[in-house]
Design a protein that fits this description.
Blueprint: H1 8-28, H2 30-44, E1 49-59, E2 64-66, E3 75-85, H3 88-94, E4 101-104, H4 115-141, E5 144-157, E6 170-174, E7 177-178, H5 182-191, E8 197-204, E9 207-214, E10 216-218, E11 221-223, E12 226-237, E13 240-242, H6 254-265, E14 275-278, E15 281-282, E16 288-289, H7 294-303, E17 308-312, H8 313-326, E18 331-335, H9 338-346
Helix pairs in contact: 4-6
Length: 347
């Protein structure tokens, strides 16, 4: 006697047996399966917050490449903040760990921005920081630098802005007048009346288009509800190339980048074998500006056994309070300008 397993009735029996076994396994492991689903949900459900936590160092000694340049004797480091999108477990941990804090996603936005617009702004600010650092370092080192081009980039829009501008737009003209810098745009706005329409020529996605924006008044000041920065292109001697990752952005590395470039193209060793770290945005005039997240940056410096931390003058008191609170054994130096930092390192 034999059975033909290809017969329909046999196939149905076998399929039924398999289904029964699956159901049986499911029933036996129902608690484990539910627990697994809950864990997946807890770690993947995103909340409208970011978790800020201690960061670390980025050694930029090998990020600056100059033909015939010096080798940094020691290390020059950028400080960064570790930031991650909040889920339920990290939210709960932020209430337990003193070094973790919550920050609303909305606080990072200017008006009703998208994540893509925030990324564009931060990339433009990184470019601006790099160009300012180059200008300051070459000037301080007495090296040749010539401005060959300028770009006026929109980095933020306010709710009151009545236009179809976008973050990342490059402004070419306002009312037919070429815009060489932000000051010229400001002059055109000041000469206009409230409710006047200013016609703008901009480059967006590599195409030149026309948009318009309306002048309004805020606290007695005429505005068009946008933030604009001027980014520059240079001709340099010696030539320089900088290596930054696509994930890196923001302006807070300007001071340390300027010091690194100066050390490499200059005639003196300012690092002197030390492990130096710092933070602070820098302007073309060499002013060092306040930055956010200094708490987490200082913690990162301490954990990485840095010798000296350079911080903007406006962030200094907060750093000293943290040093005293946590008994940090680290030297913190307040700098208001590039020259302040340079003078300290030259000692």
């Amino acid at each position: 006697m034999y059975f033909d397993i290809n017969k329909p009735e046999i196939s149905k029996i076998k399929r039924g047996d398999i289904l029964n076994k699956v159901v049986e396994i499911f029933k036996r492991n129902i608690k484990l399966i539910i627990a697994f689903i809950i864990i997946i949900f807890l770690f993947n459900y995103r909340l409208p917050y970011n978790v800020m936590m201690p960061g670390g160092l980025i050694d930029i000694s090998n990020r600056v490449v100059v033909d015939g340049g010096n080798t940094i004797n020691g290390s020059m480091n950028l400080l960064y903040v570790t930031e991650t999108k909040a889920n339920i477990p990290t939210l709960l941990l932020s209430y337990i760990l003193d070094s973790w804090d919550l920050e609303s996603v909305e606080e990072e936005k200017i008006s009703d921005e998208s994540d893509a617009e925030i990324i564009k702004r931060n990339k433009a600010m990184l470019d601006n920081s790099i160009q300012n650092a180059i200008f300051v370092a070459y000037g301080a080192a007495g090296r040749d630098i010539t401005i060959t081009g300028k770009k006026n980039i929109v980095i933020g829009l306010f709710d009151a802005n009545d236009s179809n501008l976008q973050v990342g737009d490059e402004i070419l003209k306002a009312n037919g007048v070429e815009i060489d810098n932000v000051d010229k745009l400001r002059a055109i706005i000041n000469e206009s009346n409230v409710e006047d329409i200013i016609e703008l020529d901009v480059i967006r996605d590599e195409k030149e288009i026309k948009v318009s924006t309306k002048v309004f008044e805020n606290d007695g000041i005429k505005q068009v509800g946008m933030l604009v920065i001027t980014n520059y292109q240079y001709e340099l001697d010696p030539a320089i190339s900088l290596k930054f990752r696509s994930s890196e952005s923001g302006a807070s590395g300007g001071l340390m980048l300027a010091l690194s470039i100066y050390d490499i193209i200059g005639d003196e060793d300012i690092v002197k074998g030390r492990k130096i770290a710092g933070t602070g945005a820098i302007t073309m005039s060499g002013a060092v500006e306040e930055i956010g997240g200094v708490k987490y940056k200082l913690m990162g410096a301490v954990r990485n056994n840095v010798d000296v931390v350079l911080v903007p003058e406006s962030n200094y008191e907060e750093c000293i309070r943290l040093k005293e609170k946590y008994k940090y054994d680290i030297e913190i130096v307040s700098v208001a300008t590039f020259d302040d930092a340079l003078n300290y390192l030259q000692k």
